[in-house]
Structure formats: structure tokens, C-alpha cells
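Figure 2 data, in text form.
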Amino acid sequence: QVQLVERGGGLVQAGGSLRLSCAASGRTFTNYCMGWFRHGQGKEREFVAAVSQLTTFTKYTDYVKGRFTISRDNAKNMVYLQMNSLKPEDTALYLCAATLYGIRILPADYGYWGQGTQVTVSS
């Protein structure tokens, strides 16, 4: 069992930045690939970014490439999502997730989820 708690969401103007964090507890953190997903109103949950267990690999959805950066600190059991140049379309509930597989982009491949943190970008 892995428990995930996200923090760092809020209201920001377009063009601004936010840094989301996700604290993990429970099983060995380095066993898990970590991902960020988002769930906008009226939309399906979508993949944002993922980082492999030892940070060797990262993957981003095309829409956030060059603007968002995922990272993890295995010593602190933390994963982060640095979001720059935010757009109103980035408004969503952002969720942290963990999987024992390698990097995956489908929500169904992630077995553990946090409750999410809301990001709202005003125009």
C-alpha cells in the first residue's frame, strides 16, 4: 500500500508558475514509477508526465513539453511537477499516481492515487 498526498495547487494568472509536490509513504518509494495526471471539468483523466524509479527516464504529454518538468527526490519520498507558462487550458485537478510498472500513460496502469490538488489558471 502506498499513500500519496499532493500539495501546491492554487489560483494563478496565465503565464505564471506553480510547483506541485506529492509526498509518498508506505512501501519502498523506489519500487514505483511516479506519474502526474489531470482531470479537467467535463474531461477524462489525462496523462501529464511520469518519471521512472531511478529518474533515468521521463515522459510528457505533448501539450506540456517545454513547460512542465517532473522530478523526484528518492531520499525524501517526494515527486514534483514544476509548471511554467501556465495556460487557462491547464486548469484541472492534478493527481499524483504510482505504478510498479515502468513508465505508463494509461490511468488504469497506476494502482495508487492521491486525492489531487486543484490548479486554476485565470486568463
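Caption note: The two ends are 40 Å apart (CA to CA).
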